[in-house]
Amino acid sequence: MPDPEIPGGFLGDYARILGEVAATGRRLTREELEVRRALGREAAEAGHQLRALVAMHLAQTRTAWPQAATAAPATADSVLAAVEQAVDAFAEGFERAQRLTVRREEAARREFIDDLLYGRSDLGRLAERATRFGLRLSRAHAVAVAAGPEAYTETDAVPRHVESALLARFGSRKILLTTKDGRLVCIAPGSQPDVLRYFAKQAHAATDGGQVAVGRPHQGPGGVVHSYDEALDALDLARRMGLEEPVLYASELLVYPVLTRDREAMADLVRSELGPLQKARGGAEPLLKTLSVYFDAGCVAAETARRLALSVRALTYRLERIRQLTGSDPSDPVHRYTLQTAVIGARLLDWPANEL
């Protein structure tokens, strides 16, 4: 049964063509095929479904064939061949138009995402465009970014798998999943933290243990950029600090930007507190790593030794050597805070690889 909402004009002179084929057994001309392709393109641009359009062609065939058959004894093969030609040309035009529309949509989506994540374009205009992609930027949004062992594009299997999992779990919620600079990016309303937690779980698994960072929710069109930058900063911080947690939350890492807000002051602390470690045999790095693991282990010597694959005696020697060089005792609570802050600063400033 053809769709009554589809105008019959998309059939063009299909009935006439069938009549002539039934009378003469001829094939469709090149001009007639081009007309069929043009009609298919127009139907696609009008938003109709190909299945309903094919049904309309078949219904017209059933209506026109008996009338044509009385004019001449054309074979069924001739008529069916003409039907096949006509429908195939119509579908070809329809599919070409759809592919062009998809490419335009992809280009528009990519342009919107670039403008959104880079803070380009007029914010009011950006908010208007966002509704087309299911976002209401007047509300708070948060962004999660997943980095895997390789760079991803939207057509790769990993992003498609994560997107399928999100759609299956959350259905029609206002979520935007994309890729940017080889990473997976998920934008979700700030009032729905469960979405980004689930994204983080799926992305971590799909990227074979990749790390995910989640920015804080922020209001308005500029809030998406802010949250995205926080997530990127968290990933960069994890790299420099050696943080191995699968999911990082910017809200839990706020102390690090505070520590580096006055970079010169932090650099001065690192130089004065840890600079003497460079006099040690093998340089500062082994002792700096010892301090870092010692603080991460809660200043428990046995656990620190286990993590470093050292004996407790060897660890004790290292800690004593640090005390001798720096004048600060890592086991002394009075000295511990200064030393730990300096160690964090060294990681943030990538010292001693970089001169301060």
From TrEMBL:
**CdaR GGDEF-like domain mapped to chain residues:** 119-237
Q: Which domain of life is it from?
A: Bacteria
Q: Pfam family example for this protein?
A: HTH_30
**PucR C-terminal helix-turn-helix domain spans which residues?**
287-343
Per the record, the similarity remark reads: Belongs to the CdaR family.
Q: What is this protein called?
A: PucR family transcriptional regulator
- Protein's organism: Streptomyces finlayi
